[in-house]
Design brief:
Elements lengths: L1 E5 L9 E6 L8 H10 L1 H14 L7 E5 L7 E6 L10 H18 L4 E4 L11 H18 L5 E6 L2 H11 L3
Parallel strand pairs: 1-6, 2-4, 2-5, 5-6
Antiparallel strand pairs: 3-4
Bound molecules: ligand AR6.
The site of ligand AR6 has 25 residues, from strand 2 and helix 1.
């Protein structure tokens, strides 16, 4: 099942929420800042351990940490592509973010996952193209993996909510 809601992702009770992080995993602005602020220091401590073990998190990849004080059980941090005109594999990398986040969710027995609109803020990905990729990639993944029962697209603004709904109506 796929749902769309307009809300703050830090308020959502699901097995895992996804963070639109950067490759340092050390926090930042936007949804990343909100998640670290609301979840507390335990998230950053886990991120530091991951960085010490494997180095930075590359664009399109995902890692999982505690959700600290958040209502979710886990935070899956993924690094979206910076939009650079569209000819630098941005679309493939954005699809990788959704796929790798869901793979990690399955590996950690998560049945419900909430996504923000990855890369559509500071990273300037066009919202309409991002919505197409988000819905297509998630729906294809769910058709192959019945372990995940629910994905919620958590939009922060009306425009993303309208665009995601438009894409959902096509499937
Ligand atoms: N809940 C849900 N969505 C949110 C929230 C929230 N609390 N806050 C913002 N959004 P952005 P990016 C939406 O900029 O483009 C950070 O500094 C926002 O409206 O958070 O992937 C990282 O550290 C937008 O639609 O992430 C990176 O350096 C969407 O989340 C960089 O920004 C993504 O916007 C990543 O940029």
């Amino acid at each position: 099942m796929i749902q769309v809601i307009k809300n703050d992702i830090t308020k959502i009770s699901v097995d895992a929420i996804v963070n639109a992080a950067n490759s340092s995993l050390m926090g930042g602005g936007g949804v990343d800042g909100a998640i670290h602020r609301a979840g507390g220091n335990a998230i950053l401590e886990d991120c530091r351990k991951i960085i010490a073990r494997q180095g930075s998190c590359k664009t399109g990849e995902a890692v999982i940490t505690t959700a600290g004080k958040l209502p979710a059980n886990y935070v899956i941090h993924t690094v979206g592509p910076v939009w650079n005109g569209g000819n630098k594999n941005e679309k493939e990398k954005l699809a990788d973010c959704y796929k790798n986040s869901l793979k990690l969710a399955v590996e950690n027995n998560c049945k419900s996952v909430a996504f923000p609109s990855i890369s559509t803020g500071v990273y300037r990905f066009p919202k309409d193209v991002a919505a197409q990729i988000a819905v297509k990639t998630v729906s294809e993944f769910l058709s192959k993996h019945n372990e995940i029962e629910k994905v919620i697209f958590v939009c922060f603004d009306d425009e993303n909510e309208i665009l995601i709904n438009k894409e959902l109506n096509k499937i």
